[in-house]
Amino acid sequence: MDFSVVVEYFPRLLEGTWVSLQLVVLSIVLGGIIALPIALARISPVLWIRSFPFAYIFFFRGTPLLVQIFLVYYGASQFEVVRESFLWPILREPFWCAIIAFTLNTSAYTAEIFRGAIQAIPPGEVEACKVVGMSKAQMYRRVLLPRAFGIVLPAYGNEIILMLKGSALASTITILDLTGMARTIIARTYTPIEIFLAAGAIYLVISMVIIAIFRQVEKRQNRYLGSVSIKVPDKG
Amino acid sequence: MIDLHGFGHQLLQGALVTVELALASLVVGLVLGLLGAAAKLSSIKPLQWIANIYTTLIRGLPELLTVLIIYFGATTVLMSIASLFGYDEYIEIGAFAAGVTALGLTFGAYATEVFRGALQSIPKGQHESAVALGMGTFHKFYRIILPQVWRIALPGLGNLFLVLLKDTALVSVVGLEDIMRKANIAVSSTKEAFLFYLVAAIMYLALTVVSMGVVSYLEKRARRGLTRG
């Protein structure tokens, strides 16, 4: 094995890393924005409001991300209507197709995480809000959502790491993200082990940074709980 | 009825390959997971280190990258080992073998954590009563510990299997003739991308629903010895 190729091509790998990071950050932010209304609709007591998010979440969590990317990138262009619409400049670009697919995918997972968090809030707090005379909007804005945010953090951190790993699939639609760049370099140098391991190491470093950041945010968000929040309850 | 241009049969064949790949990886992954959990809980430090490195590395790598590393890397490694023994012909491992290895390794890494949690949650009294009845280590594990670990680990393992089922699509990237690849072939000849990828998506959904049914049956069955409460 010859790791000098890694040194030689390292700047290219970093370029790919930058693309990967853009993909992850954009999809996570957009996905988070979409996820909130979906999560709120998902816990609605009205059946027909609840059923759309259910189907949405079921589809995006039940099918491979690869299928979803191909559906957006290759699938959309099957229709003349799409190719002539104003959306075509966006749907023609692999980068934006990846963003769309990732955003839809992560929003489904995130909505489930949000739902779990909102439902995990003790009913006493909801009752307390009602007792002090808050409206439904006030209750969500002042109590339920900030509380849910604290509960959601660990699972949300996991979701971001899953998205980082999922972003490698962008390479299948010609995007030169970290994996795509690695494959391009390998096509030229034919040193798969060295370059793939280097790319893998970069992914590992990014995940570790994400984990460290989330630990800090978690500590801050749950600081009102004192040392209690750090302790994992003993198993019975 | 939608017109699949005669590719329906091909897609079903692909589904068979997908199922085979998922089940083969499941077997490999379960074995690796049990070994990994045993290593993490053992008192021998180097075993713990190996298991920790294994789970940290695999869980941090994108699954696609794992598949690519195994597929392209294994060829290089195998050839360099073979050349030590004076065999210089070109060796290539198939997409299926690479897929089973990569997905089995991934499943195993996550299953290690599931099994570890389950093993740790078995009360000490269970171990002690098994020993008191005169069971040996193997007997105790096989007849007392494993059935309980199975019951506790099943929900977690079921989730992992659903993830695994979707990850099988990645092996199409290295040319395995699964649902995804059959859909790609159909698309390149009919140019009806949306239709075929949607059909592929529905096939994966169907497989997911069936797996969920099987898992919930197994869960009920594993709980049969448990009284309510």
Pick out its properties.
heterodimer, A: 236 residues, mainly alpha, MetI-like fold, 0% strand, disordered C terminus, B: 229 residues, 8 helices, 79% helix, membrane (chain B), transmembrane helix (chain B), MetI-like_sf (chain B), amino-acid transport (chain B), AA_ABC_transptr_permease_3TM (chain B)
Plain-language structure description:
The complex is a heterodimer of chains A (about 240) and B (about 230). With about 240 residues, chain A is an all-alpha fold. Chain B is mainly alpha-helical and about 230 residues long. Chain B has a domain of about 160 residues: Orthogonal Bundle (MetI-like fold), CATH 1.10.3720.10. In chain B, about 40% of the residues are buried. The mean pLDDT of chain B is about 90. At the A-B interface, helix 2, helix 3, helix 8, helix 9 and helix 10 of A face helix 2, helix 3, helix 6, helix 7 and helix 8 of B.
| Low-pLDDT sequence parts of chain B | none
Mean pLDDT of chain B: 91
Task: Name the overall outline of chain A.
Answer: flat
Count the DSSP helices of chain B. Answer: 8
Assign the CATH class of chain A.
Answer: Mainly Alpha
Q: Give start-end ranges of low-pLDDT stretches of chain A.
A: 229-236
- Round the Cα radius of gyration of chain A to an integer and report it: 21 Å
Give the N-terminus to C-terminus distance of chain B in angstroms: 49 Å
Instruction: Please describe the biggest sheet of chain A, giving its number of strands, its sense, and whether it closes into a barrel.
Output: none
Strand content bin of chain A: under 5%
Question: What CATH architecture of one domain in chain B do you see?
Answer: Orthogonal Bundle
| Class from helix and strand fractions of chain A | mainly alpha
CATH class of one domain in chain B: Mainly Alpha
- Extended strand count of chain B: 0
Going by CATH, the architecture of chain A would be: Orthogonal Bundle
